[in-house]
Structures are given as structure tokens and as C-alpha cells.
Amino acid sequence: MFVCGNQACGARWEPDEVQIRNEGQGPVFRCPQCGARNHVEARTARDGTTVYRQVAAKPAAR
Ligand SMILES: [Zn+2]
Predict the structure, then answer these.
(1) I need a surface site. Which of 15, 20, 54, 56 has the fewest CB within 10 A?
(2) Cβ atoms 43, 51 nearer than 8 A
(3) Measured between alpha carbons, how far is 57 from 50 in angstroms, rounded to an integer?
């Protein structure tokens, strides 16, 4: 279960409801409701499947 990090949104999503992409700073998913980017971490399970875990947003380096 992922939770949108946009506090005004806060929508919850199942992993199969979002599309995870690597936009250059690690894997992220965009909230289907508000479009906010949420960082996730890829882990490979023992059976070889990739599972994603939500992680706190890193401070933006600008
Ligand atoms: Zn959202």
C-alpha cells in the first residue's frame, strides 16, 4: 500500500494501481489523482520478483 506524499491529497494506492518509473533519481510513482511524485525503493524478493517499498522523499537538490 502506497500513500501519496502530497498532504492535500493523501490518496492510498495498491502497488498495481500505480505505474513505477525511474525518472533519473530512482524509481518513483506519480499519484494518479494529483500527479505528485512519490519515491519508492526496489527490492528483489527471494523468488526473483521485484517489490517496491515507499520511502520518504529525499530533499530536492536544486
Ligand atoms: Zn496524490
Answers:
(1) 56
(2) yes
(3) 20
CA distance 17 to 11: 12
Query: Which residue in this structure is represented by grid cell 498532504?
Result: 7
Count of other CB atoms within 10 angstroms of residue 28: 19
47 CA to middle of ligand 1, Å? 31
Residue that the C-alpha cell 512519490 belongs to: 38
Q: pLDDT tens digits for 34-60? A: 999 999 999 999 999 999 999 986 565
Domain ranges for the chain: 2-54
Q: How far is the CA of 50 from the centre of ligand 1 (A)?
A: 23
Distance 46 CA to ligand 1 centre (A): 31
